[in-house]
Amino acid sequence: MINLTFLGATGQVTGSCYLLETGKHRILLDCGMFQGSKETERQNIVEFPFNPAQIDAVVLSHAHLDHCGRLPKLVKEGFNGKVFLTEASFPLLDLMLKDAAHLQLKDTEWENKRRERAGKALLEPLYDLEDVEALLKLRVAVAYKMPTAILSDISVTFHEAGHILGSSIVRLVIQDGAESKTLVFSGDLGNPNSPLLRDPEIITDADVLLLESTYGDRDHKPLENTLLELKEALAEAAQSGGNVIIPAFAVGRTQDLIYWLGKLQRQGDVPQRQIYLDSPMAISASKIYAQHTHLFNIDDPELTKKAPHGWQAWLQGLLFSETAEESMAVNRINGGVIIIAGSGMCNGGRIRHHLKYNLWRREAHIIIAGFQAQGTLGRMLVDGNKKVLKILGAEVNVAAHIHTLGALSAHADQSQLLQWAGHFKEPKPSLYLIHGEKNAALSLQTCFNRQGWQANIPKAGERITF
Ligand SMILES: [Zn+2]
Q1: Taking the CA atoms of the chain, what radius of gyration do you get in angstroms?
Q2: Which residue has the higher pLDDT, 104 or 278?
Q3: Can you give the pLDDT at residue 2?
Q4: How far, in Å, from the CA of 179 to the mean position of ligand 1?
Q5: CA of 410 to the centre of ligand 1 (A)
Q6: Which residues lie below 8 Å from residue 417, measured CB to CB, with a gap of 6+?
Q7: What is the DSSP pairing of strand 168-176 with strand 154-160?
Q8: Closest CA to 83 of 57, 64, 51
Q9: What is the pTM assigned to this prediction?
Q10: What's residue 308's pLDDT?
Q11: Considering the chain, what percentage of its residues have pLDDT values greater than 90?
């Protein structure tokens, strides 16, 4: 008998974590961080509903924080098994977790100053750099498509997910007495229109399928329209003299954006001469991407030729802004440039400074190119129902143009999810829709059920047996 418990990314897109128990072993699929509102993030502090010392191994789908961000906490609380991940996730995990530890340390210091003044008990960060270092020692890199026995009764194969560099669809084969069962976990499934990476690999058999549903309720706008909108926003901003501000996830979205900007530039459609990448993390991630061009999409001969020479060869005028001083200098530019900065959902990082300096300017253009979770500043901008926002302690009037470019998403949309799952052979696997807000999952469930599937939407803490 095999048990699977849904411990995160149920009814929401963050906190990905699933506990798989066989007769002999316990493993986790992902151990991600909850991100979004304060209330959502409070779930990170809550004790794990299992003993971390009794977890034998972790299998990681990809290096985004909402999939890996609680791994150091797992180690801090006693986990000492191996963490299996793809070769490109190996360096990305290092980058993501060290940054996460650093941010938490800073946030906790800040919060503790307030608490001290108020006479309240002080907080401890979720984990520190030492915990991250201990976790990183447990990594084991596995090549794509290489079935690998990770425990006596469990073997794992990573397949390309096309979402970010190193992202994978995880296929587990579990020995259960004389029988063997297959569980496929989609991880975050990429958008086949994504330019840099290969398309998500087709899988045709499984007993149980965990499928993400981030965009389960909608299709992305056609790519051509999106690129046209991007081109027009750049032209309008150049004409009115405003800046173009693009919040972007450091890993994945930033590199896609650089790709598209380079493509538009060659057509003469990028009037801005300077494009600032104002994010040390995105700069490091871009360097890791540049070291793994063999994993890039081979459909684009132009990219294949230029990619090995680095991003600046691809996009003229691309400037890396690493230090705080450099970033502050970018803050002082009133118009005429493109600024790409993190975080992708505007809930932290340098982008908040750029929004503070630009959002109130009528001539500025803000380009939202990724999913914005409930409760984030980015979501408020997309929803557009607030005229004045509080950013870094200042009241900021929203006067800039806000563009939402759906087609640049790193996630498959409704039709793409249905299409990908449509390749599974009869009998169809038991289907569980995860990693989606309520409406997205419900809408996708209706579509699947119409096609003869029995799609389930698991609740937090729900356990299934197969
Ligand atoms: Zn992701």
Answers
A1: 22
A2: 278
A3: 96
A4: 33
A5: 8
A6: 189, 211, 212, 213, 215, 216, 444
A7: antiparallel
A8: 57
A9: 0.89
A10: 82
A11: 82
**298, pLDDT greater than 80:** no
pLDDT digits (tens, 9 = 90+) for 227-252: 999 999 999 999 999 999 999 989 99
Put the strands of the sheet holding 338-341 in their side by side order: 318-320, 275-277, 338-341, 244-247, 365-368, 401-404
Distance CA 335, CA 464 (A): 55
Per-residue tokens: 28 = 């986790």
What is the structure's pLDDT at 315? 96
pLDDT of amino acid 408: 81
The CA 90 to ligand 1 mean position distance, Å, reads: 15
DSSP H or E segment with residue 58: strand 57-59
64 C-alpha vs ligand 1 centroid, how far in Å? 5
Can you list the alpha helix ranges (DSSP code H) found in 273-364?
A: 280-290, 301-306, 311-314, 324-331, 351-358
pLDDT recorded at residue 36: 80
End-to-end CA distance of the chain, in Å? 6
Q: How many Å lie between the centroid of ligand 1 and the Cα of residue 14?
A: 9
Using the mean position of ligand 1's atoms as its centre, give its distance from the Cα of residue 66 in Å: 7
Cα–Cα dist 70/29, whole Å: 12
- Chain position carrying tokens 């990693």: 435
Mean of pLDDT over the chain: 94
Structural domains in the chain, sorted by start:
3-218+410-465 (3.60.15.10), 223-408 (3.40.50.10890)
Helix (H) or strand (E) holding 3: strand 3-6
Q: What pLDDT does residue 306 have?
A: 85
For 231-254, give one letter per residue: b (16+ CB within 10 A) or e. Answer: bebbeebbeeebbbbbbbbbbbbb
Three-class HEC string of 185-252: ECCCCCCCCCCCECCCCCCCCCCEEEEECCECCCCCCCHHHHHHHHHHHHHHHHHHCCCEEEECCCCC
Expressed in angstroms and rounded, the spacing between residue 57 Cα and the centre of ligand 1 is 21
Residue 429 to residue 443: CA distance in whole angstroms: 19
Q: In the numeric block, which tokens belong to residue 67?
A: 């999939």
Q: Residue 63 C-alpha to ligand 1 middle, in angstroms?
A: 7
